[in-house]
Input
Amino acid sequence: MYLTADWKKCTGCRLCLSVCCLCHFDEANPKKAALAIDAKFPEPGTFHPRVCDQCGTCASVCPVEAISRNKDGVYIIDSEKCTGCGACVEACPLKVMFIHEDSIVPIKCDLCKECIPVCSTRVLSIKE
Amino acid sequence: MFAYGGKVLRINLSTGQITVKNLDEKLVRDYLGGRGFAARILYDELKPGLDPLGPDNKIVVASGPLSGLFVPGAGKITFAAKSPATNSYGDSNMGGMLAAEIKYAGYDVLIIEGKANRPSYIYINNDRVEIREAGQYWGQGAITTEKMLKDDLGDQFQMAVIGPAGENLIKFACISHDFGRQAGRTGIGAVMGSKNLKAIALRGSKSLKIANPKLLKTLTGDIITQCQKHPALKLWLNQGTASVTVWSNEQGSFPTRNFQSGYFEGYKNISGDVMLKETIVTNKACFGCPMACGKYARTKKNNRTYYVEGPEYETAAMIGGDCAIGNITDLTYANWLCDELGIDTISGGSVVAFAMECYEKGIITDKDTDGIKLKFGDIESFEKILRKIAYREGIGAILAEGVKIASEKFGQGSDKFAMQVKGLEISGYESRKAPAMMLAYMTCDIGAHHNRAWAITHDIAVGRDKIEGKAQRVIELQHIRPVFDMIGCCRLQWVELDLSLEYYPQALAAATGLNYSLDDLLKCSERVWNLSRLFLIRESKNFGRHVDYPPARFYEEKVKNGPTRDSIAKKQDIDKLLDEYYRLRGWDENGKPTPAKLKELGLL
Amino acid sequence: MKIKLGGYGILKNYVGPPENAREIELPQAKSLKDILQEMGIPDGMVMLISVNDEQKNLDYVPQEGDEIKLVPPVSGG
Output
């Protein structure tokens, strides 16, 4: 199971980023979210959400095996084990693992699905 | 302090001094944020009578407590200064990403003072603040400059920039951001230009603490679900504010040919439907907005492709109707021209429409215009005159002062159709048969702007010729709507998707831990309204009720055609509206707040 | 024939909010335009009409059981 985004519908409002941070860190900061939006302006004038497709590259490159797959197929970081080496962030093909100065542990989508209903243009959905 | 950035950043461009201070808690208590902060700071810090385009003027950039949070429409920021258009308190509200970004950098307020000795821009990356050289950007268009800065600094930076109009001190120059959002009104872009300040580039990555994150999440989650169920959401997502163009014409409230009429025969060619078919590329939202009124568009003209956000309703009204630019390609191109030059489309449209009428009437001639044959509906002469204005060339230097001063220079009765109040051009609603809307324009604290009290639906609901009760409704709206400019949110979710006003004090409490009732918020709003009035009184050489009068066209000339044809405002009704308005506000018969009212608001 | 009529914004004052819509008994079929006129809702107050979540115009003639929502004009900024 993973999150997928229909970029053509994205309005760039960032409500998904806001709710992601609020749910995971109890604070407001779209730069501490497990997804991102690239805005391509002034040309061609489109938004491109980046979301994790749970490909597992992060787990395969982690030198301390801090990332593991759960029963739903979602890759979760064990923050106790993580050393903050950044190998996963570097290797992530979709650039959807994020480093923020508040913590050495990268931020990664845990498929909590909170971002899906806040999007009024229905950009985000789950793929089995 | 929860939800606030907690810091005030002060930058003096003359001395290069940069200081950071904690946000004053009393300021928070009485003025909340945004426009409230701006009005109080400017009233306290600006010497009376100073030149708005001199180094003593200050620009206040202020977000609100809800800006940047998980709150619908939490992307509004206020730019304020003493306005070169009105010589009094001026502010303009802008969406986009800047309101959020400034708070993530840790600041609620930026105060910009002095004047740089050469073209400069302010660089803010969290705690790192620098005044940098902007020689390479000076002279460039606003859209171009923003792109250059993004290329130079990175996409994570948010910019507020001016175009050539701001550099050349055009009194209706805007501040641009996010490729299509503007702080358009009252000429704050010219104040930036007067300080040699081309841009502010800002990046923030800090977190904001929330008093009760779980509650905020639930409250906002519910309210967003409500927004999504609203039947108007689809229309709004498809057309944005342009969806009002057709209605406005049906009501005869669409300013046409410099407000000679309230109905533009070509309106169907510039409506939201046409945009949907021909120009819209992407629906573009400001931070946290579920309804995305921004219509990012593309059009081809003279073998070149232009990208621009818009036209929104006000642009359609003030350039489409008021200058009679009746096809979507030309209108979109005109919108791009204004955005790139850094001109407010509302005042810009009104100024060009005024010039077109002056030319038509022979008040100005080919000799004055250097041969430009100004004609309603003609995009070529529109472009030529707009460029002359932006660079203050020839007659452009006079028009660059706005319609009030231009009409004083041109004379020959042109002041009667210089469509402004207090020096600010009237925005997009013909109001001769809409007394509440007219009163809203007359009494708006920054000059004739619609956003403080969009009262025309009240006129239609209770009777368009009725005078009684209109002042009451205008005052209510003048308190409700500016609350949004104080808390740092957009009002359109409330106006258009019927989001309950009660949500805001609840969200404010969940975010900040501060308990305000809706009435408390409205009281703060009334305080700011009276404070900006005091500012106007302080700056006026000859203050009196005449400052609240509409242009003579509204009471001396009938609407030429359309559904409101032959309607006219009566002078005695205008006075009746003002009398009632002043009385209900606790102001004297000349429009001065009484000591009792000022005491009640804690302003005395 | 019975229909439900609810309104947003300023129109709530005439027909109640959508969640508490006013039930109206219609002795004979007539257009929404006529119905609204009889209720004293001024021309120009209704910008968008949703009937069972589909967009309709003033010429629409309501059918038994229709849930109608009226939306007032937007503010253009």
About this structure: Chain B has a mean pLDDT of 97. The two ends of chain B are 28 Å apart (CA to CA). Chain B touches chain A through 48 residues (CB under 8 Å). The longest helix of chain B spans residues 518-539.
